[in-house]
Amino acid sequence: MGRRIIGSHVLLRRPWLLLGGALICILVALAIGAPMFAPHDPLKQNRDGLVLGGAPAPPGRRYVLGADSRGRDVLSRLLHGARLSLAVGLGGTAVAMALALGVGVSAGFFGGTADRFLMRCTDIVMAFPAILLAVALAAALPQRNVVTLVLVVGFLNWAAPARVFRSETLTLRERLYVEAARSLGAGEFRTLVRHVLPHLAPTALVLARLATASTVLLAAGLSFLGVGIPAPAPTWGSMLHEAQTWYSVAPWLAFWPGAAVVVTVAAFNLIAFDLSRPGRAGEPR
Questions:
Q1: Which of 69, 80, 103, 160 could be bridged to 42 by S-S, CB 3.0 to 4.6 A?
Q2: Which residues, in sequence order, are CB contacts of 102 under 8 Å at separation 6+?
Q3: How confident is the model over 148-179, as pLDDT tens digits?
Q4: What does the pLDDT look like over 250-274, one tens digit per residue?
Q5: Confidence bin at 181 (pLDDT 50/70/90)
């Protein structure tokens, strides 16, 4: 009972963490339950979704958030788009963090030639504009689906976290407890796994939150440019792309997917902001 009260007290003192966590929970719940919550088939073109002149139907009783230029329900496409957008964002973050940990920790812990080679590779990746390289990679792929988009997005987001992990590892490997482990006969691999990697967890947690916001934005940007998941699969970026023609007649087509991207990115950034504040890592959760 005491631990529950302490945990609640700490959470109430961290409104940004509460707000960001609540938003993410709502988004995940809506994405998982999209087939149940969506009032219409997101791919079905409805005749009553268009008004006179072929313009999209405005928000109303049948189409709560309106219909798009093909008569498809915007709310249904928005919910199903959350599944793809979050899947690419979270999957891309997992790939990026795995690459960043492998490269950054290896460079910082072993040093020497490995450090110089890995950091030059990191510099090369960081030298290219992310969106241009993403477009080139996505366009070169013979087939674009969730898996390939996750790999592309993850590959483009590992470089910056890798440099942070390298810097942290350089500091950790000089700590007294690491030197003590070595003097007691612990091998390099055991020292790395038991005494270095666990201390990178708080940094990895913050970077993962920030990376997720970046991957969601990048995935939406690729879909907006037409090199994301092919149509007619609903994604927030493709919905924004289709809304360009009708922005003056049907502004809701751009507002709702744009708001979804903004809310998702803000939610992950709020959590990262709270976790990165001084003294937060040591507080009980």
A1: 80
A2: none
A3: 888 888 888 888 899 999 988 888 877 777 77
A4: 888 889 999 999 999 998 888 887 7
A5: low
Residue with tokens 């945990």: 7
Q: Which long-range contacts (CB under 8 A, 24 or more apart) does 212-215 make?
A: 212/89, 212/90, 212/93, 212/268, 213/264, 213/265, 213/268, 213/269, 213/272, 214/157, 215/88, 215/89, 215/90, 215/92, 215/93, 215/96, 215/153, 215/154, 215/157
pTM (2 decimals)? 0.80
**What tokens does 230 get?**
């092919």
Token code pair at residue 172: 């950790």
Please name the residue that has the structure tokens 């990165």: 276
Residue ranges per structural domain of the chain: 2-39+70-276
Residue 267 parent element (H or E):
helix 252-276
Contact 227, 138 (CB under 8 A): yes
Q: Which residues of 35-55 are buried (b: 16+ CB within 10 A; e: fewer)?
A: eeebebebeeebeebbeeeee
Q: How far apart are CA 113 and CA 104, in angstroms?
A: 14
Phi and psi angles of residue 282, each rounded to the nearest 5 degrees, phi first: -90, -5
